[in-house]
Amino acid sequence: MILDQFNLTGKVALVTGASTGLGQGMCLALAQAGALVAGTDYVACDETASMVESGKFHAILADLMQPDAPQKIMAETLERFGRTDILVNNAGIIRRNDLPDFTEQDWDDVMQVNLKALFMLSQAAARQMIVQKSGGKIINTASLLSFQGGIRVPSYAASKSGVRGLTMEMANELAPHGIQVNAIAPGYMVTNNTEMLRADPVRSKQILERIPAGRWGDPSDLAGACVFLASAASDYVTGITLPVDGGWLGR
After folding, report:
1. What is the pLDDT of residues 42-90, one digit of tens each?
2. CA–centroid distance for 11 within its chain
3. Sheet holding 241-244, edge to edge
4. Cα angle at 93 between 24 and 29, to 5 degrees?
5. Of 162, 15, 135, 132, nearest in space to 74 by CA
6. Which end of the chain has fewer beta carbons closer than 10 Å to its terminal beta carbon, N or C?
C-alpha cells in the first residue's frame, strides 16, 4: 500500500526549534505519522509536549548558540530513545538592520545557529545513522532567501543560501549510506520571525499581494512535506530544497 510508505512507526525523530511555530508543527506531524519525537529548544517545549500523544515526545533544553549543544542534544536523544532515524534542523534566528549598520555580532549569531549548529548536529546524526546501518533522513529548514536576496537581512540570506548548498553537499556524501538529505523552504509563515512584517500594514499588504495563494502560511502547511521527506516515500529524493510558499517563487 502506498500509504504504508509514509508510516513512521518505530522511527525516532529529532527536531530543533520545537517550542513554537514551524518546529512545533513538524513535531506534531511526525508524531501523528507514528514517530517518537525528541524536540529541542532553548526554552521549554511544554506547549508542544501537550499537543503530542503522551509518551511520544521528549523535550531537550539546549541553546544552539553554545558550541557543545549538538553533542548534548544527540546524547540525550540516544539516552531517551536509543537511536536517531530522522533529524529536522529547523531552529533559526534572524536579525534585521540596514547593511551599513549591520553588526558583526548579529552576523556571527545568525551564522552560528542557522548554519554552523545545523552542520554540527547533522554530522552527529549522520555518524549515528551510519552506525545503525539502517539509513536515515536529514531535513533542513531553508527559506525563500535560499533563492532570493532579501533586504536588511544579510546574515540570514547568507545562512539560508548556505543551508541550500550544504543540503546538496551532504546529500552527495551520505547517499552511499542510505541517508537522504533534503530541505524545505517555507514561504511567508505565521511565526515569531515574521511578527514584525505582519504587524507592518504596508509590508504585509505587499507580501500578500505577491503570494498566489492569497494568505500567509500556517505551520500545519509544512506537515505533508515534512512527513514525505522523513518517510520511505522519499527514498529516491535527495539534495533538493522544496519550496512550500503558496506559489511565491513562481510569481
Report:
1. 999 999 999 999 999 999 999 999 999 999 999 999 999 999 999 999 9
2. 18
3. 57-61, 36-41, 12-16, 86-89, 136-141, 179-186, 241-244
4. 15
5. 15
6. N
C-alpha cell at 136: 536515515
Residue range 115-174, pLDDT digits in tens: 999 999 999 999 999 999 999 999 999 999 999 999 999 999 999 999 999 999 999 999
Report the candidate in 219, 221, 193, 216 with the shortest Cα–Cα distance to residue 206: 216
According to DSSP, the β-strands at 57-61 and 86-89 are unpaired
Cell 553554545 locates to 66
Residue 84 burial (C-beta neighbours within 10 Å; 0-12, 13-18, 19+): buried
pTM: 0.97
Structural domains of the chain, with CATH: 2-191+220-241 (3.40.50.720)
Which of these, 36, 43, 49, lies nearest to 17 by C-alpha position? Answer: 43
**Catalytic site positions:** 156
Measured between alpha carbons, how far is 39 from 24 in angstroms, rounded to an integer? 8
Rounded Cα distance between 241 and 137, Å, is: 14
Nine-digit cell string for 139: 531535513
